């Protein structure tokens, strides 16, 4: 399991973007990590002439002046927001924000990217323009938060369809849970079978809850037996209908339960359960097969767009 020792925090200096710092401070302290801040000047850079007027591109001297101002503001934000013992460097780039953050994270061999779900402005249409693309392209885990999210994470939801690919989010979730004494819910969604609707209020489901729980547990057992990390069951005998504990490589114990939520939409079922029972979701960007991305246009993407608690996405090994 990769340690968290280098964190890259992306900012646009907005009030919403500053929401990430309370989470950054805690995780940096817990893992004794170094934190670097990055700001990307969008290209082409425009100077607003009037709020209702057409904007004009900056000339070279104005662009240099703006860059110097942004670098000073970035340095100031580092001093104000990151504890001295965790401060790294400030990085100023220009170009497409998501592309530049991704390139920096990859070249700098960072272990985690932290970013606000919404940046400048608070419109729902702003949510995801940069963060969502970053989740799509980054090989580094991406942790996104909203302004007002609770840092007191005591329960983490890890959605899974039982595939080894979806379970690749579990080791990192355990790492975070162990530092917070939090529990983990492995959440699977039982979809309604609308091809066999019965009269009245009865809605048939494709699989029974206990069968799904047994399947998830067996999948977990197979995943842990085949993976190279030292994540393992604390006890030899475990049951799908009872909570059990996993040990991470440091010997920390994390409580885990298998939960089945009924619903005709996977992402809505995940969002509803997580917002009512947890403070964070950690999920893989891909699902049940290597060819079928769970992110592009489907579950992970829709969870991110709709949920109001922190989300961390983890890219499976086969696409890194």
UniProtKB/TrEMBL annotation:
It holds the Pfam family Usp. SUPFAM superfamilies: Adenine nucleotide alpha hydrolases-like (SSF52402). Keywords: ATP-binding, Nucleotide-binding. Residues 4-143, 153-315 form the UspA domain. One of its GO terms (molecular function) is ATP binding. Belongs to the universal stress protein A family. This is Universal stress protein.
């Amino acid at each position: 399991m990769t340690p968290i020792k280098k964190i890259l925090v992306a900012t646009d200096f907005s009030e919403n973007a500053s929401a990430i710092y309370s989470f950054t401070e805690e995780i940096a302290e817990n893992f004794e990590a170094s934190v670097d801040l990055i700001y990307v000047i969008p290209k082409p850079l425009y100077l607003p002439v009037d709020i209702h007027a057409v904007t004009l591109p900056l000339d070279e001297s104005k662009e240099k002046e703006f860059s110097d101002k942004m670098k000073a503001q970035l340095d100031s934000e580092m001093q104000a927001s990151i504890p001295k013992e965790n401060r790294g460097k400030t990085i100023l780039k220009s170009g497409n924000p998501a592309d530049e953050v991704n390139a920096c994270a990859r070249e700098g061999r960072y272990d985690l990217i932290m970013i606000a779900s919404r940046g400048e402005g608070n419109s729902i249409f702003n949510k995801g323009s940069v963060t969502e693309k970053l989740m799509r392209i980054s090989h580094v885990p991406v942790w996104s938060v909203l302004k007002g999210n609770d840092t007191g994470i005591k329960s983490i939801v890890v959605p899974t369809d039982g595939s080894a690919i979806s379970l690749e989010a579990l080791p990192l979730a355990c790492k975070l849970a162990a530092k917070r004494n939090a529990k983990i819910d492995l959440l699977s969604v039982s979809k309604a079978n609308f091809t066999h609707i019965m009269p009245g209020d009865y809605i048939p489901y494709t699989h029974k809850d206990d069968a799904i729980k047994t399947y998830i547990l067996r999948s977990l057992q197979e995943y842990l037996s085949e993976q190279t990390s030292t994540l393992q069951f604390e006890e030899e005998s475990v049951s799908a209908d009872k909570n059990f504990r996993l040990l991470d490589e440091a010997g920390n114990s994390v409580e885990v339960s298998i939960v089945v939520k009924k619903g005709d939409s996977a992402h809505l079922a995940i969002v509803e359960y997580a917002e009512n029972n947890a403070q964070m979701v950690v999920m893989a960007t891909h699902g049940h097969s290597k060819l079928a991305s769970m992110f592009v246009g489907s579950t992970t993407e829709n969870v991110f767009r709709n949920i109001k608690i922190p989300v961390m996405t983890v890219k499976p090994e086969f696409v890194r």
